Amino acid sequence: MREIRRPGLRDWIPILVVFAGAVFGAAWLGRSSNLGAAAVITGGTVVLAVLTRPFSRLPRWATLLSVGILGVSALGGAALWPDTGSWHHALKDSLWMHPWYVLTLVGAAGSSCGGACGPGTRLFAWVYVGVAFFIGVVVPAVTVLF
Fold first, then answer.
1. What is the dihedral sign for C-alpha 70, 112, 16, 14?
2. Closest by alpha carbon to 49, among 99, 1, 119?
3. pLDDT at residue 69, rounded to an integer
4. Torsion-angle region of residue 91: left (phi > 0), alpha (psi -120 to 50) or beta?
5. Is the separation of the CB atoms in 135 and 70 below 8 Å?
6. Domain ranges of the chain
7. Rounded to an integer, what distance in angstroms lies between the CA atom of residue 4 and that of residue 9?
8. Cα(84)–Cα(81) distance, rounded to whole angstroms?
9. In this structure, what DSSP letter does residue 119 have?
10. Which residues have C-beta within 8 Å of that of residue 44, sequence separation ≥ 6?
């Protein structure tokens, strides 16, 4: 098993800069370009997954699958939604969750707690993927439908 370390200040600075850049960049671009905003959010989510990988006990497949789900939902929703203004209005409040989701589990997935739901277990990995599906697919669907 690979060694997991805790993030220090030198690690957090680029992580938080990427997070802020993705969220604010997508908010700014979302006023004029669905795909531009979705690409910025997806790119930021991918970069955060790479930057936080040294601190995570999650299996690589769970990280890749989760980031893929979030990216496809953002890019697919932007490509399929023709009206930029209504897309921005409906989804601006949930797109920030894509890169945020990667950040929330940096500490949890790096902890040493054990058990069936411990961060290094298969169950935890599937829960992580399931929550990514919820954030990427269910939250936007609820926003649009209700």
1. negative
2. 99
3. 96
4. alpha
5. yes
6. 9-145
7. 16
8. 7
9. T
10. 18, 19, 21, 22, 23, 25, 26, 98, 99
Answer whether 46's CB lies under 8 Å from 64's CB: no
CB-CB neighbours of 1 under 10 Å: 5
Spacing of C-alpha 59 from chain mean position? 16
Q: Is 118 helix (H, G, I), strand (E, B) or coil?
A: coil
- Quote the pLDDT of residue 106: 66
Query: Could you read off the pLDDT tens digit of each residue along the chain, which spans 146 residues?
Result: 567 778 889 999 999 999 999 999 998 887 788 889 999 999 999 999 999 988 888 889 999 999 999 999 999 888 887 677 777 777 777 888 999 998 887 656 545 566 666 767 888 889 999 999 999 988 887 777 77
Q: What is d(CA 22, CA 116) in angstroms, rounded to the nearest whole number?
A: 34
Residue with tokens 């707690």: 113
- What is the residue type of 2? R
* 10, 14, 84, 104, 138 from 135: Cα distances, Å: 29, 24, 21, 13, 6
